[in-house]
Amino acid sequence: MEFCTVTVGLVTSNCPEEKVLLIKKGDALPVSYGVISWWFNGGETDAVILVLGDTIKAQVPGQFKLFVATGVLGLLAGFQTDFVSKIFGLDKKESENIVNSQQGAFLLKLDHGIRFPQPSKDTKDKLYANIEDPSGAVVVKGGGYVNFLLEKKLPMLSEVGLSAKFMKLEGNAMLAPSYVADGSVEISYVSKGSGRIKVVGSEGKPALESKLEEGDLFIVPQFFAASGIADDCGIELFTVFTSSKPVFAQLAGNTSVWNALSPVVLQVALNVTPETEQLFKSKNSESIIIVPPNT
C-alpha cells in the first residue's frame, strides 16, 4: 500500500466481533480463508493495495475467486427477496430494500462525511506488521536491505501458510543468488524502481532473464535460484513465499554449499586446481546477500 492510511475491518466465521485496523504504507496483513473484510480509504490520495495469495486450494486452482456479501454480485442478491424476507422476518418492501439498494459491486465511491469505525483498541492478537521497516532487517551499507516477515514474527501467517520478504537495492547493487530449500514458490512484485532479474533452473541455463519495471510480477518455481541487479534508480521488491516457515539457501557466502564442501569434492565438482578452489572458497568466507555497486 502506498502514500496513505487505510481502515480495514475483519470478521471471522461465526464471530460476532469486528476487528478494525488502520494500516499504512509497507504494512502486510494476512487474511485467512473465510474471513470477511472491508477496506476504506478515507483520505484524498489513492491507495495501492497489492493482493497476493496461494490459489492451490481455490475453487478454480490458479485463479482468485472473490465472494462478496452485498451488492449486485453479493450472496444476499443470490438468495433474492423471498428467501431474505423469510430468513430475517421482513416484509416484501423491507427485503427488497436490503437486497437491491446497493447496486455497486467491489469498489464503491462514498459520499463525503461518512465516518467509518475507529481502530479496535482491545485486539489481543498481532494481525499485521510493517515489512518495509529496516529495523531488524539485514542491512548492507551502500547496497540496501532485506526484511523478512515469517511466522515467528507474525504468528497469523501460520493460518494462511504464507510468508513475505521486502528487499530494497540501491542503485547498481546486486542480490546474491539464492533459492528456497524447502520447495516453496516465490511470487515477487516490483513496487518501485527497475532492474534486471535472472532465474536459473535445472538445465544449466536461465529460465528467465528479463528487465524489471515498476508494476511487474514474476515467479520463481520450486528450487530455482534467482539473482538480480538494480538500475541506477534502485529497485524495491515485495515477495510472497508459499510457506510460513521457508528455508532459505544462499549460493554465495559463508553459508553457501561451496563453503561447506570438502576441498577435494569442490575441486572435482568444478574441475579446477587446488589453488583455484582455495581462491573461490576465500571469496565465500563472509556473508554475501547484497553486493554493493563498488564491490
Description:
With 295 residues, the chain is α+β, with helices and mostly antiparallel strands. Helix content is 16%, strand content 31%. It has helices at 75-88, 92-100, 157-160, 257-260, 263-270, 274-282; strands at residues 6-11, 19-23, 27-28, 36-40, 129-130, 138-140, 144-149, 163-169, 174-180, 186-200, 206-212, 217-220, 225-241, 248-250, 290-291. The strands form three sheets. Strands 6, 7, 8, 9, 10, 11, 12, 13, 14 and 15 form a ten-stranded antiparallel sheet that branches. A hairpin with a 5-residue loop joins strand 10 (186-200) and strand 11. The protein is elongated and about 90 Å long.
Short description:
With 295 residues, the protein is α+β, with helices and mostly antiparallel strands. The chain has helices at 75-88, 92-100, 157-160, 257-260, 263-270, 274-282, and strands at residues 6-11, 19-23, 27-28, 36-40, 129-130, 138-140, 144-149, 163-169, 174-180, 186-200, 206-212, 217-220, 225-241, 248-250, 290-291.
